[in-house]
Amino acid sequence: MEKIKMTTPLVEMDGDEMTRILWGMIKDKLILPFVDLKTEYYDLGLLSRNTTKDQVTVDAANATRRLGVAVKCATITPNRQRMEEYPELTEMWKSPNGTIRAILDGTAFRAPIVLPCIKPVVKNWEAPITIARHAYGDMYKAVDMTTEEPGTAVLTFKGESGAEKALCVQTVDGPAVWQGQHNKETSIRAFARSCFQYALSQKQDLWFSAKDTIAKIYDGEFKRIFEEEYETSYKAEFEKAGITYFYTLIDDAVARVVRSKGGFIWALKNYDGDVMSDMIAAAFGSLAMMTSVLVSPDGTMEFEASHGTVTRHYYRYRQGEKTSTNPMATIFAWSGALKRRGELDHLPELVRFGQRMEDASLRTLEDGIMTKDLLPLVEPGFQARGVDSEEFLDAIASRL
Ligand code: NAP
Ligand code: MG
Question: Which segments of 203-327 does DSSP mark as H helices, in order?
């Protein structure tokens, strides 16, 4: 067959350890035989970040803004232990994901890959639930303190103009604990825009929930900005796409989510998203099956797996062992990026190919061929066989 042509490159960010090995296998076995792949390649592996003083991460993020689509491999965020493992490191480089998120001003959307032979813990969930977590402020940039004596706490804002605004937080009659938190209008608005953009690209309903009955001003501001963005910029497109935007209180949302069939995007404030994304991931099955997309307010998208570099498997791989590391989330990062590139460039062949990569992967699992992490999760009575990563990818390639 003739290879599928691309017109614009996508940004390829290579990474570390076991996921770097899977990266090469996915390209060799599933993509390069079929697609005339055009990428702008950035090596975000730890040693390349070190030799470029992390400039490569910044360059990759800027290239993503320019080209609109990226796919990223998992990368090591160095800590003290890694500094010993890699003595050549000149600095404890920051998380690449943090750097990229800041440059793209993006929101991460996490969605599980679902299939009939692995049922979610919640029986009525038929389609994935995607979580969008606001990744700025609130408790994560708060200050706390304790006090020992009776007294009063006052919240004061000093404007650059010299104007002041003050509020009494509380007068207490004994020891107490306090917290001051904030969020920024621009950050909430960027979050809202990313959510509306992503809902449109997925043609899925968008839910947003907060607690504006209690935090009337704080959460009320989130609610107001979402509504304002919806009314002024997205309502017409949502109606055309046949999808809805829906705000409800967080407690009502939790109850509705559990009773739902799934198949929507749930936008949450920072803390709510932190908690609920772990709940959704656990209820759907496995970290190895969670995908992630970083979406900018302008619709730029960077696709990746939610999991890390799977270090323990890599150490065994280096000893010459074949490992059974699950490549599904990394495959879906590639297919997502190819589909998005195809949509933006009006290349239906490329979109179809991305879809076929996903179908072939899912069919392989449904045929009972899977990596070993999934074996304990399959429905009772389902016949499944555990294989190593390479056998699994070969099985997908033969179906593709
Ligand atoms: P991890 O790489 O996600 O792995 C944690 C454990 O989860 C693994 O040891 C493995 O369990 C299981 N697992 C995760 N993905 C799997 C897969 N695809 N197939 C099979 N099993 C899988 O998390 P970590 O060990 O905490 O972090 C390792 C490195 O990744 C760190 O250096 C961290 O900085 C980095 N990291 C990067 C990203 C990113 O780039 N987005 C995200 C998170 C972490 P078993 O060993 O029991 O089989
Ligand atoms: Mg969490």
Answer: 218-229, 235-241, 250-259, 270-284, 311-318
Q: Ligand 1 — pocket residues by CB below 6 A?
A: 74-77, 97, 287-288, 304, 307-312, 325-326, 373
> Residue 155 is inside which H or E element, if any?
strand 151-158
Ligand with the closest atom to the CA of 286 = 1
Pairing of strands 369-370, 69-72: unpaired
- Spatial neighbors of 15 by CB under 8 A, at least 6 apart, are 23, 44, 45, 72, 73, 74, 75, 76, 309
Nearest atom in ligand 1 to 306's CA = 41
Closest C-alpha to ligand 1, atom 30: 308
Ligand 1 binding pocket mutation candidate from 80, 94, 310, 365 (most atoms within 8 A of CB)? 310
The pTM score is: 0.90
Q: 261-297, pLDDT tens digit by residue? A: 999 999 999 999 989 988 898 898 888 999 999 999 8
pLDDT 10s digits, 173-198:
999 999 999 999 999 999 999 999 99
Residues 6+ apart with CB under 8 A from 225: 185, 188, 189, 192
Q: How far apart are CA 137 and CA 321, in angstroms?
A: 44
- The confidence score (pLDDT) of residue 285 equals 81
Instruction: Tell me the pLDDT band of 392, cut-offs 50, 70 and 90.
Output: very high
Strand, coil or helix: what is 205? coil
Tokens found for residue 388: 């190593």
Nearest-angstrom CA–CA distance, 400 and 353: 9
